[in-house]
Amino acid sequence: MQTLVSVNDLLLNLESSDWALFDCRFSLANSEAGLKSYHLDHIPNARYADLNNDLSAPVVTGKTGRHPLPDMDRWIEKVRSWGVEPTTQVVAYDASGGPFAARLWWLFRWSGHERVAVLDGGLGAWMNRKYPVSPDLPDPATESNYELRPSLTRMIEAPDLLQALEDKSKGIRLLDAREAARFRGEEEPLDAVAGHIPGALCVPFGENLDRNGFFLKVEQLKERFDGHLTNADGPSGNDQNVVCYCGSGVTAAHNILAMVHAGLPEPILYGGSWSEWILDPQRPIETR
C-alpha cells in the first residue's frame, strides 16, 4: 500500500512482522503533547515518531524554516533503528487529520521506500470502531541494514524556486496548504511575516478530508486539484511542475499525498516553505 490504508486492513495486519506502525501525533502549540498522549494509549505495536526529533533536523536560526528536512544519513539511521526493511509495510497515523503522518509518508518515499501509507481517518477512526489501544511500549526493534534507494519524490530549494517563478517557461504552479486567512496575510500565528509566495494558489490541506476526517474519494480529490490548476492561467496540472509548500514543509505533504492518491503526477515539495522563504528579505511576498 502506497497512499492510504483503512483501519480494517490495519487491524487484520496488526500482529504482522512485515508491518511497522508509527504514531505521529504532535501539537505545534505544545511539542510534548504528542508523546504524552502516546504514553497514555496508542494503537498496539505503534512506535512514536516525533516531528521535531525524528522527522526534522534541528532549526538553524536565520537559515532554516521551522521544520527543516532531516539530513538523509541521519534519517536512514533512524529508519534502521526502527527495524524497517525494504519489504516492510509502513503505516503512519496521527489525530489531526493526517499532516504529521503525511510528513513521515513523504520522508519514507524520499528515501525510496514504496510500501508506506497513512491510516485513513487516523486515530479517531480507529477509536470510533472501538479497536484496541494500549499504553504498552513495543519491544525494542532489531536494527535493520536498510539502504538508501532512488527517491520516489521530488524537492526544490528556495533559490531554484525563485528562479523558476521568474522564468514563466518553467510552468511552475505553487500550491499553499495553509488556511486562507494565513495565505492572505490576515493573520499569522507562527511566523514573523504574513502572506504568501507570489503566484501561489491557496489549497488548504484540511479540505482534502470529509467531515468525518477521511480523505475524499479519489474522483473528488482529482476534481479538487484539477479544478485549482486548470482554472488558473497556464497549463493544466498534468502538464506542469506543481510545487507544494505550507508554513514549514509539513502540511504540504498532505496535499502531495492527496494528489498521489488521486492518481495525479506527484508534486515537488518546497521543504523550507514559508518560514524559510521569509528569512531572506529579497524574496518577494504577497498579501491579498
- Count of extended strands: 10
- Taken together, the total number of domains comes to 2
**Radius of gyration, in angstroms, nearest whole number:** 18 Å
CATH class of the largest domain: Alpha Beta
Unreliable sequence segments: 232-239
Q: Give the CA-based shape.
A: globular
In CATH, the homologous superfamily of the largest domain goes by the name: Rhodanese-like domain
Class from secondary-structure proportions: alpha/beta
Alpha plus pi helix count: 10
- The pLDDT mean sits at 94
**What percent strand?**
5-15%
* Spatial separation of the terminal alpha carbons: 40 Å
Q: Spatial order of the strands in the main sheet?
A: 1-5-4-2-3
Molecular structure report:
This protein has 288 residues and is of the alpha/beta class. 29% of the residues lie in helices and 12% in strands. The chain contains ten helices and ten strands. It has a five-stranded parallel sheet with strand order 1-5-4-2-3. Strands 6-10-9-7-8 form a five-stranded parallel sheet. Helix 4 packs across helix 9.
Task: Kindly summarize this structure in a few lines.
The termini are far apart. This protein folds into 2 domains: 4-128, Rhodanese-like domain (Oxidized Rhodanese, domain 1); 154-277, Oxidized Rhodanese, domain 1 (3-Layer(aba) Sandwich), CATH 3.40.250.10. 29% of the residues lie in helices and 12% in strands.
Keyphrases for this structure?
288 residues, alpha/beta, Oxidized Rhodanese, domain 1, five-stranded parallel sheet, 10 helices, 10 strands, 29% helix, globular
Strand-helix topology:
Layout: E1 4-5, H1 7-12, E2 19-23, H2 33-40, E3 47-48, H3 72-81, E4 89-93, H4 99-110, E5 116-119, H5 122-128, E6 154-155, H6 158-166, E7 172-176, H7 180-183, E8 201-202, H8 218-230, E9 241-245, H9 252-261, E10 268-269, H10 273-277
Parallel strand pairs: 1-5, 2-3, 2-4, 4-5, 6-10, 7-8, 7-9, 9-10
